[in-house]
């Protein structure tokens, strides 16, 4: 696991971009693992799979269940699990829950959201040998209503820069920068010595992450930074249409598919 984390640092050093994606199940994890450096079991599974309007409704047992499935598909990438809302309110609660996640899912580390508010908690987790990835900018667990990108005002810039430094000092091995204005994400990336992983935060970050279901065209999200690299929804529709027609006609199952 430490080898995989130091590989990320090396990539930052030699300016080789870090490729990250989310996965919520073995099947997807298995397919993406050979191309990714890091696979995140994100609490975005709440909106993507369960249609929750907020990730706050995701709980620890959901994260553990999906992570166990993902673990079966991940051989090469670093596997990180999101700690859900209300599971890291203080040092002892965070350590207890992170240890449980690490033990039950055999993941390589955890991610939690927030800047200065969680820096002491991160310090405590790292001291107890839990590898932690930070997450600043838009932090969905604390957003109500519409998501707006971060880093417009001087005060927001100053705070985000300070937060990124605090997370680095706390011992985080990388930081997700979500929806941060491009000049600021560049400045943060150049300021910190740990990798920055962008989502909606410009090409200047050391790596990029997307929700796999968005990239694969399994969701209808129309957020500016989402680029669809496949259209699986229409593939599914076409396949099912064909199946229906063959069942109706009685051409499926043919002799080939019968005992
Ligand atoms: O939950 C998630 O999938 C995430 C990524 C979008 C970074 O936190």
Summarize the model shown.
By secondary structure, the protein is of the alpha/beta class. The chain has 10 helices and 8 strands.
- Count the beta strands: 8
Number of helical segments?
Answer: 10
How confident is the prediction overall: mean pLDDT? 97
Given the helix and strand composition, which structural class is it? alpha/beta
Low-confidence stretches: none
Question: Cα-atom Rg, whole angstroms?
Answer: 20 Å
| SSE run | HEHEHHEHEHEHEHEEHH
What strand line-up does the widest sheet have?
1-2-3-4-5-6-7-8
Task: Let me know the largest β-sheet.
Answer: 8 strands, parallel, barrel
Question: How much helical structure, as a percent, in the residues?
Answer: 40-55%
Strand content: 5-15%
Distance between the termini: 47 Å
Q: Which overall shape is indicated by the principal axes computed on the Cα atoms?
A: globular
Q: Which small molecules are bound?
A: 3-methyl-2-oxobutanoic acid
Description:
By secondary structure, the protein is of the alpha/beta class. Helix content is 43%, strand content 14%. It has 10 helices and 8 strands. It has helices at residues 2-13, 26-32, 45-48, 60-71, 91-105, 116-127, 154-170, 182-191, 212-215, 232-249, and strands at 18-22, 38-41, 78-82, 109-111, 132-137, 174-178, 196-199, 207-210. An 8-stranded parallel β-barrel has the order 1-2-3-4-5-6-7-8, surrounded by 6 helices. Strand 4, helix 6 (116-127) and strand 5 (132-137) form a beta-alpha-beta unit. The longest helix is centred in the last third of the chain and has 18 residues, at 232-249. 44% of the residues are buried. 3-methyl-2-oxobutanoic acid binds next to loops.
């Amino acid at each position: 696991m430490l080898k995989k984390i130091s590989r990320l640092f090396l990539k930052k050093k030699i300016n080789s971009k870090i490729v990250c994606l989310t996965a919520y199940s073995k099947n997807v994890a298995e397919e993406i693992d050979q191309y990714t450096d890091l696979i995140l079991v994100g609490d975005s599974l709440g909106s993507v799979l369960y249609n929750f309007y907020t990730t706050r409704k995701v709980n620890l047992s959901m994260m553990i269940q999906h992570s166990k499935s993902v673990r079966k598909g991940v051989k090469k990438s670093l596997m990180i699990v999101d700690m859900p809302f209300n599971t890291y309110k203080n040092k002892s609660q965070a350590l207890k829950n992170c240890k449980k996640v690490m033990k039950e899912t055999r993941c390589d580390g955890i991610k939690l959201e927030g800047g200065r508010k969680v820096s002491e908690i991160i310090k405590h987790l790292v001291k107890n040998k839990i590898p932690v990835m930070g997450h600043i900018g838009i932090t969905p667990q604390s957003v109500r209503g519409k998501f707006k990108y971060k880093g417009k005002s001087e005060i927001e810039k100053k705070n985000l820069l300070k937060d990124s430094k605090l997370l680095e000092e706390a011992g985080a091995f990388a930081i997700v920068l979500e929806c941060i204005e491009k000049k600021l994400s560049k400045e943060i990336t150049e300021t910190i010595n740990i990798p920055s992983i962008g989502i909606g935060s410009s090409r200047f970050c050391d790596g990029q992450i997307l929700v796999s279901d968005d990239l694969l065209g399994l969701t209808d999200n129309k957020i500016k930074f989402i680029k669809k690299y496949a259209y699986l929804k229409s593939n599914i529709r076409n396949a099912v249409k064909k199946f229906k027609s063959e069942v109706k006609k009685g051409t499926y199952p043919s002799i080939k598919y019968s005992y």
